[in-house]
Amino acid sequence: MRHGIAAVSAAALLTLAGATGIAEAKPASLYAPSAVVLTVGQGENGVTVVRASTLSCAPTAQGTHPDPKAACTALAATAGSLDTLLAAPDTHRVCPMHYDPVTVTADGVWQGSRLSWKHTFPNACAMSATFNGNALFAF
Fold first, then answer.
1. How much is the pTM?
2. How far is C-alpha 50 from the chain's CA centre?
3. How far apart are CA 109 and CA 96, in angstroms?
4. I want to staple 32 with a disulfide (CB 3.0 to 4.6 A). Which of 44, 105, 109, 111 is the partner?
5. Does residue 66 have a cis bond before it (omega within 30 degrees)?
6. What confidence tens digit (pLDDT) does each residue in 47-97 have?
């Protein structure tokens, strides 16, 4: 009889432990994580970071970015493919033809998926003309 009670107690403890483990596995938020670190650096290979900003977009826009709401809106418009930022440069802006490379990066998580993006521009003017007022790297 003691063995039967012990077996039932052990089964009850395992069931309770299993239920507790499932409860702990619940996500902390209803939103997929969206947090990135944005950098602007000098150079193309051994980049020296000149400016950096953090951006978190879920559940609310926040971070060290000066306009997190506009930056989150700009990031959302890319649907996670930051190459779309390069699609609409200001064709009326003339930049000098000197080579002083500027590299921008975005690393983190966008809507639960890993994001790692890097692009090098020939100079700061070309970067500004290419982003054409986009808020994402305006810090």
1. 0.75
2. 19
3. 35
4. 111
5. no
6. 899 999 999 998 899 999 999 999 999 999 998 899 999 998 999 999 999
